[in-house]
Write a sequence for this structure.
């Protein structure tokens, strides 16, 4: 089992490392579905490449997909700061549904379209190779270094939006660079893991950690732990019960998030600060006799 699951698990850990951090930004910005939408835009680019004769995993298909994602990054960077009647979430939803519908139309004209739809949605991370491991690790390390060097404007825009007026028009540039790097990660991840699993890595650990703390460092630690445990549990269940790997990992994420939510609620119910002491319950209102 270790021979089969070793490389996929290491790839999952790499996905966890960068996606949990980016997910913190996305959740804090309040554009939860921008990751799912960019993933779907990347998938649309891949399907267009497939239609014109390239394999989904071909390098040319990757760059076509990245080009589509770059257009999405420009759109979201420009619409985020504008004060319009139409909220950005509506624009994100429209882009997602149109991209998904267009992908289906394109794949309907491609041979084996149904199988390609399944591959784009849930991927097949079990087929990850040592080259996928090293190339993905290198790319994500470069993007991680990029975010560390530009952490001040990125963190300010995401976590301290009241400071953005001081940046003037530069905020559009920082937003574009954020979404462009985000799109680069998503495009690469969709090829390996599929749309649904990418969304799970981005959002579920960020939401789960938010249940317990607001501090970024602690949230990252909790998110990385949740991502690692979910990956291990999902891979094991997929191997043990012969289930689709991507979908199984997504369900493992959902199960652990549910357990965390229930555990937090139970803890808040039974902790001493939430209990009424017998003396307090028996004490009569002030001015009345017992």
């Amino acid at each position: 089992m270790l021979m089969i699951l070793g490389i996929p698990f290491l790839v999952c850990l790499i996905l966890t490392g960068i996606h949990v951090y980016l997910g913190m930004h996305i959740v804090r910005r309040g554009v939860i579905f921008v990751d799912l939408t960019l993933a779907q835009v990347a998938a649309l680019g891949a399907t267009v490449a497939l239609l014109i004769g390239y394999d989904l995993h071909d390098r040319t298909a990757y760059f076509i997909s990245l080009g589509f994602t770059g257009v999405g990054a420009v759109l979201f960077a420009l619409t985020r700061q504008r004060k319009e009647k139409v909220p950005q979430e509506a624009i994100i939803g429209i882009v997602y549904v149109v991209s998904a519908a267009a992908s289906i139309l394109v794949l309907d004209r491609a041979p084996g379209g149904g199988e390609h739809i399944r591959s784009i949605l849930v991927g097949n991370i079990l087929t990850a190779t040592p080259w996928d491991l090293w190339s993905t690790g290198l790319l994500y390390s470069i993007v991680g270094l990029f975010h560390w060097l530009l952490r001040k404007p990125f963190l300010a825009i995401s976590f301290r939006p009241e400071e953005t007026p001081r940046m003037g028009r530069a905020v559009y540039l920082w937003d574009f660079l954020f979404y462009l790097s985000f799109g680069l990660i998503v495009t690469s991840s969709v090829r390996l893991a599929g749309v649904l699993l990418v969304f799970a890595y981005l959002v579920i650990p960020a939401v789960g950690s938010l249940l317990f703390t607001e501090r970024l460092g602690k949230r990252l630690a909790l998110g990385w732990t949740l991502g690692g445990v979910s990956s291990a549990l999902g891979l094991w269940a997929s191997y043990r019960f012969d289930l689709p790997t991507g979908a199984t990992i997504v369900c493992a994420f959902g199960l652990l998030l549910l357990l965390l939510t229930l555990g937090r609620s139970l803890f808040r119910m039974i902790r001493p600060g939430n209990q009424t002491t017998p003396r307090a319950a028996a004490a009569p209102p002030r001015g009345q006799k017992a």
User: Anything to note?
Assistant: The chain has one domain: 2-271. The domain at 2-271 is CATH 1.10.3470.10 (ABC transporter involved in vitamin B12 uptake, BtuC). Residues 276-283, 285-290 have pLDDT under 50 and may be disordered.
